[in-house]
Specification:
The protein is 83% helix and 0% strand.
């Protein structure tokens, strides 16, 4: 870790900003494509009720993302401080603690969503016409929350450990997988809204 990050103390700030900000911005842009891609394929394969159902469930992913960023960005800031102090021992402990917290938080959040599925869906705007689709989409998305939180938290930590391009590539790969699997799940396998959720979770 220490040898790989020596450039933080030697390279100009402007160059460092470009090196880290551009991959981060591209990652955020690509992440936003997940929901857009889902909406496009659901609109084609299921219809407007499917679009309405997935929008009901969309806040679930935002809540999960907020916890992932809370843990990941917090750990990234602490990791950067430790690296500046050349305190590798605390850096390693901080990353380890963050991963444990991410796992525990994701499991607790998943359990909470499973237990209060109906109340959450109705509170987020489900109707008699969309509740069926919303349940299908919700169940698969919730099953993927632990991986979603862990992956997004790790991306922040990876960027802080001087690997912004690796974090960007991992986001790109996930989006590409989502784009490939969506039409297969909807049009070939005929899974409808559930297929989109599977493609999203795998991505």
């Amino acid at each position: 870790m220490q040898n790989r990050n020596h450039f933080f103390a030697t390279e100009p700030v402007g160059k460092l900003l470009l090196r880290f900000s551009i991959p981060c911005i591209l990652s955020l842009l690509v992440s936003s494509l997940y929901n857009i891609v889902d909406q496009i394929f659901i609109g084609w394969g299921v219809g407007y009720l499917g679009n309405g159902a997935t929008n009901v469930v969309f806040p679930i992913t935002i809540i999960a993302l907020s916890f992932a960023l809370l843990i990941g960005d917090g750990c990234a800031a602490y990791l950067s401080i430790c690296q500046g102090r050349k305190d590798n021992e605390r850096a390693h402990k901080g990353v380890g603690n963050a991963l444990v917290v991410a796992i525990i938080c994701s499991l607790m959040l998943t359990l909470l969503f499973v237990l209060f599925q109906e109340q959450i869906l109705w509170a987020f705007g489900a109707t008699e016409n969309t509740i069926g689709y919303a349940r299908e989409y919700f169940q698969v998305i919730v099953a993927g929350i632990p991986f979603f939180i862990f992956g997004n938290a790790m991306n922040s930590i990876i960027r802080a450990d001087s690997s912004p391009k690796f974090a960007m590539i991992s986001t790109f790969v996930g989006c590409i997988i989502n784009v490939i699997l969506n039409p297969i799940a909807i049009f070939v396998l005929g899974w409808g809204v559930k297929g989109t959720a599977v493609a999203h979770s795998i991505g």
